[in-house]
Amino acid sequence: MKLDINAIFQQKIADINSRLSSMAPKLGSSEASSSDTSFQDYLSDAALLGLDSSSLGLNDSLYGDSSELSGNSVLNKYLEDLLDKSGDSKSSNILKAQKALANSTAYIPSDKTELMELINTAIDNASAKYGVDKNLIRAVMKQESSFNPTSISSSGAQGLMQLMPGTAASLGVTDPFDIVQNINGGVLYLRDQLSNFKGDISLALAAYNAGPNSVIKYDGIPPYAETQNYVKKVTEYYNQYQQLSTAQK
């Protein structure tokens, strides 16, 4: 029987959060319970309050003495243990993405204006570097992540351009949640697909979503509902961004 590793992981996080809320008033406050409070924040607060790993529901025989581990180390050990037990590539990719996010040192502003300025600057630079239309980059990003730098999909795709762990590694992306790295990696991959399919945007988008081999296999957009809808939506966004750019000139 194949374990649903992602479900186990999410349940463990829920269990730990529940224990922290019941044991530490500070962690049960409205501030701590906001959507901006990450699992890493809970672990860090737990360490400050002197809560050990057994109190959090983590097995010391597996994760060691919590007094010698930072919250990040506890999380890493837990993720590594789940990865070792995972026989499912989808669950493995999700866990790799979650571990990458836990380890990320990327600067991601909480202020939306500052965030979009960073994203737009990175888009402009990647567009100039790789020769890909900035409006096409924005359209892909809109569909992939809605401009959320910490997005992780149900298949384990990461960040703004939703790079799979293996793809990110092959593109030289060491931190998939770093805005510049993620955009550069995604745009490089998109440029390669545009090159592979002789500038045909629809086929390049299909390859970005389903992989170039699927496009080659079907000699066109694959007959997958997800991919067909993906190409349709990105094309719509692209046309909208093109119209906005024209109107602003």
Q: Care to describe what's here?
A:
This protein is mainly α and 249 residues long. The protein folds into two domains: 5-103, no CATH class; 112-248, Orthogonal Bundle (Lysozyme), CATH 1.10.530.10. It is built from twelve helices and no strands. It is globular. The termini are far apart. One of its GO terms (biological process) is peptidoglycan metabolic process. Belongs to the transglycosylase Slt family.
- Summed over residues and divided by their number, the pLDDT gives a mean of 79
Give the total of beta strands. Answer: 0
Give the CA-based shape.
globular
> From the 3D coordinates, which CATH architecture of the largest domain would you assign?
Orthogonal Bundle
Largest sheet: none
Task: Give the H and E element order.
Answer: HHHHHHHHHHHH
CATH class of the largest domain: Mainly Alpha
Please give the count of helices: 12
Beta-strand fraction estimate: under 5%
**Kindly, what is the distance between the CA atoms of the first and last residues, rounded to a whole number of angstroms?**
59 Å
Keywords:
2 domains; 12 helices; globular; 249 residues; mainly alpha
Topology:
Elements: H1 5-23, H2 39-48, H3 60-63, H4 71-85, H5 89-103, H6 112-130, H7 134-145, H8 165-170, H9 179-196, H10 201-210, H11 212-218, H12 225-248
What's the short version?
This protein is mainly α and 249 residues long.
